[in-house]
Amino acid sequence: MNNDKKKLELDVRERDTQLETLKNSTGDVEAMKKQIETLQTENKTKDEAHAAELKQLRVDAAVDAAISAAKGKNATAIKALLKDLDKAEFTDDGKIKGLEEQLQSIIKSDDYLFDTTTKKTQIKGAKPGETGKEDPDGKVDITKMSYEELAAYMAENPDAEL
What we know:
Phage minor structural protein GP20; coiled coil
C-alpha cells in the first residue's frame, strides 16, 4: 500500500508539471489542443492501469484471507487451482463471489493442501489438584509390609505417623 501511495503522489506531481508546461507554452491553439488531448488519453490509460492494479491487490488480499481461513497449507498451489480470478466480483462484505464454493470443491478434491484435522491438546504430567501421592489422607497398613518396604516408605515419607 505504501508503494501505491508513492506512485499516486508521483502521478499527481507529473500531472501538475504537465499543466504548468501547458500554461507556460505559447503558440498555436491547435497544437495546444492536440497536446491536451494526448495528455488526457495518457492520464486515462494510467488511471485504468492503476484501477486494475488496485483491483488485483484487493483480489489477492481476499483470496489470501479465504485460503488462510480454510487452513490452506500452500497458498500458491491453491491459487493455481482457482478459476477466473481476473473476472472476480466482490460482494458487499468484501469477499469474492463464488470463492468459498471453489475452495470447498478444492478441499474435497485436493484435501492434502488443507489442514483438515482437528488436533486435541493432551496435557501430560501432573494433573491440577492432585498431590502425586496415592492416598494422602489414608493410613498405610504397615503390618503387610516387609522390613525393606517399611524402610523405603519411611525414607519417602519421613513425617508419616505409624
